[in-house]
Write a structure and sequence with these properties.
It is a single chain. With 260 residues, the protein is an alpha/beta fold. It is built from eight helices and seven strands. It has a seven-stranded parallel sheet, with helices on both faces. The radius of gyration is 18 Å and the shape is globular. The two termini are 28 Å apart.
Length: 260
């Protein structure tokens, strides 16, 4: 399927690894020029090189920095001032008990998972509307629909972003600018493996056993492949996806037990 976005320009946040990387690869495979960013310069350079090698006809721009800071956002926007596509993504805050979280913990979570996406949308959406094309995808979490008690910082910040987008996305779509969210469940990423390692140490078992047990609990009997996530993201960015906006799409293997 030709998504009709060849030659478009995209900013993909937190894209050196994991789901962000998968989104950047999927867009690049569609002929989109990508500006990728992450804090780890080495991993970012490796991803950029892989994308260039697979897609010699596109431009790949790498910007090492922290997208959750004003300086990091300014650097990315300087590298790609008029994106057609914006993929918002940032690592989630740590788990814990809300009784132990300080105001600073909350502000950090809000900065990363709510305010940063809003700032990037604010910086790019008017240009998209003027050009009559824009696709914004926020990578949030399945916890938006099914909150996880120990992830209260993430639940709160991502739900706040979701509520904000619910209103804005109905105002931009008339100019062919859509804003949607992808809500990942468990995917095979470094973050998943890291949490499994921590749990394994507490329980005195191997990380592989933890991962195997967790996979069995999912209706699909497995974790998601990041490539699947990237392809879903690319579809939401398609030229013919202009009638989809304000939606929160779960990719969780059927783990959420609800009807809606």
């Amino acid at each position: 399927m030709d998504l009709g976005i060849k030659g478009r320009r995209a900013i993909v946040c937190a894209s050196s690894k994991g789901l962000g990387r998968a989104c950047a690869i999927a867009l690049a495979n569609e002929g989109v020029h990508v500006t990728i960013t992450a804090r780890g310069a080495e991993a970012l350079a490796k991803t950029a090189a892989e994308i260039r090698a697979a897609n010699p006809g596109i431009t790949v721009t790498e910007v090492a920095g922290d997208i959750t800071t004003p300086e990091g956002r300014a650097a990315v926007l300087a590298a790609c001032p008029d994106p057609d596509i914006l993929i918002n993504n940032a690592g989630g805050p740590p788990p814990g008990d809300f009784r132990n979280w300080t105001r600073d913990d909350w502000i950090k979570a809000l900065d990363a998972n709510m305010l940063t996406p809003i700032e990037l949308i604010k910086a790019t959406v008017d240009g998209m509307m003027a050009r009559k094309f824009g696709r914004i995808v926020n990578i949030t979490s399945a916890a938006v629909k099914a909150p996880i008690d120990i992830l209260g910082l993430s639940n709160g910040a991502r739900a706040g972003l979701t509520g904000f987008v619910a209103g804005l996305s109905r105002k931009t779509v008339i100019n062919n600018v859509t804003i949607n969210a992808l809500l990942p469940g468990p995917f095979e990423t470094d973050r998943l493996r890291s949490t499994a390692k921590g749990e394994a140490e507490k329980r005195g078992v191997t990380p592989e056993q933890i991962l195997a047990d967790r996979a069995k609990l999912n209706p699909a009997g497995r974790f998601g492949d990041p490539e699947e996530f990237g392809l879903a993201c690319a579809f939401l960015c398609a030229a013919k996806a202009g009638y989809i906006t304000g939606q929160n799409i779960l990719l969780d293997g059927g783990a959420f037990p609800g009807t809606l």
